[in-house]
C-alpha cells in the first residue's frame, strides 16, 4: 500500500471507525462481482451509513487521489464492481432502509443498499408491484441496478430500471450532492441528469437515495412453454402472440440450455425434444384471453412453428415453468462460461443470430455454445462453455479473439455489445463496436465534469 493510501486510510478510520475494514476476508468478499475473472485487491472496504459520509469519503479520496469502487450486491456480470487494483471499495450494505412511501404518488424512496427482493416485497405489502425482475433479485441492490440500468425478464412489458426511477440523489466525484428530478413525472427543465447517472456504472458518482415508481400488480399470470423446430420459428411465434396479446415476457433457450437446466434438477415441461424453446407469459384477465392464447397456439402448431407445448394451470405450475428459464445461468456456471450479452432490433434477430452462430460454431468446434435470453427484447445471452480439460486462461484468450468477429457482426447490425449487463472491464475493449468515437469523447467530457480527478470507478466503461 502506498504512503498516500495509508494517510487516506487513517482519515477514513477516524471518520468511520470499525466501518473501515482492512482485513483480507473483507477485501476478498467485497472486491469482486460474479465475473471471477479478476482477483480482488482493494486497499480497504468502507461501509457508509449516510449521504454525508459518502461525501466525506469522496472528499478524502480526492485529497489523496484514491480510486473508489462502488459495491452493491456484487451480482454484476461485467466486472464493473471489481476492485482489482488497490481501490477503496464503498459498500452500501448499511444504507439499506426504505425511507418513505406515498400511495398517491405510488412511489417509494429507498437507500441504495435495499435488496431488489426487499423492494418487491415492500411493494406487494402495499398492494403494488415493482416490475424489474431477474434471477439475482435476492442479493442485487437497487443502487447497483441503477448503476447498470438492470433489465431482466419483464422488460418487454415494463422496460428497464431507468423507466422506474423518478428521483435520484447522487454524490458526484466532486463530492457534490445532487437531488435529481425529485420524484416528478413531468419536468421539462433542461438536461435530465438523472438519466446520465442511471447506467453510468458508478463512473460519475454514487447513488445515495432513489425514488422508485410502483405499479399495479399483474393479475392471473399464465405461462406457456413451447418447443420450436428452429430459431426462425421462435420469432414467428413471438409475432403471432404479440399481434393479439400484451405479453409480460417472451424468453427463449436452446436445447443445450434445456439440457443443463434439467440436469440441474428442474422438471421437463413435456417429452418432445426440440432444438429451441420459448417461454411466454401474459395476464389472463378474462376467459377470452386464455381462449385466444390457445387459438394462437393451435395456429402455430398447424403452421409447423411449434412442436409441443404446455400452459400453466396454477401459480405453482407457472413458477415451475419459469425455473426452466431462470435457472439456466446457475446451471451452466460450473462450466466457467464466457458470456456475451448482445442485442439488435427485433426484426434483425433471426439473420443476426444465424450469422453469429455460424461464426462461433466455426471458431469453437470443440466448445459448447449455449443460447438463451430475452428474445422479445432482441437480447441474446450467448454463453461459451469451457471444456473441463482446458486451462481457464487459454479458454478466455481464445474466446477474446473470437469476440472481435462477433462484435463486428453486432456493429454491422447496429446492435449493442452489452444489452443489460454493462461494460465494466469485460467489455471495455469492445466499446467502440457499439459507440462511435464522438460518443465516447462526449462520455469522457461528461465524466470530467462530474469526476475531474477520475476517482469514481476508474478503468470501467472506458479509460480516460
Ligand atoms: O448468465 C447469463 O449470461 C445471463 C444472466 C441473466 O441476464 C439472465 O438473463 O439470466
Ligand atoms: Zn438477462
UniProtKB/TrEMBL annotation:
This is D-2-hydroxyglutarate dehydrogenase. Residues 38-217 form the FAD-binding PCMH-type domain. Gene3D superfamilies: 3.30.465.10, 3.30.70.2190, 3.30.70.2740, Vanillyl-alcohol Oxidase, Chain A, domain 4. It comes from Alloalcanivorax marinus. InterPro entries: FAD-bd_oxidored_4_C, FAD-bd_PCMH, FAD-bd_PCMH-like_sf, FAD-bd_PCMH_sub2, FAD-linked_Oxase-like_C, FAD-oxidored/transferase_4, Oxid_FAD_bind_N, Vanillyl_alc_oxidase_C-sub2. Signal peptide: none annotated. Its cofactor is FAD. The lineage of its organism: Bacteria, Pseudomonadati, Pseudomonadota, Gammaproteobacteria, Oceanospirillales. PANTHER family: D-2-HYDROXYGLUTARATE DEHYDROGENASE, MITOCHONDRIAL. Keywords: FAD, Flavoprotein, Metal-binding, Oxidoreductase, Zinc. Its EC number is 1.1.99.39. One of its GO terms (molecular function) is FAD binding. Belongs to the FAD-binding oxidoreductase/transferase type 4 family. GO terms for biological process: respiratory electron transport chain. It is an enzyme of class 1 (oxidoreductase). Homodimer. It catalyses: (R)-2-hydroxyglutarate + A = 2-oxoglutarate + AH2.
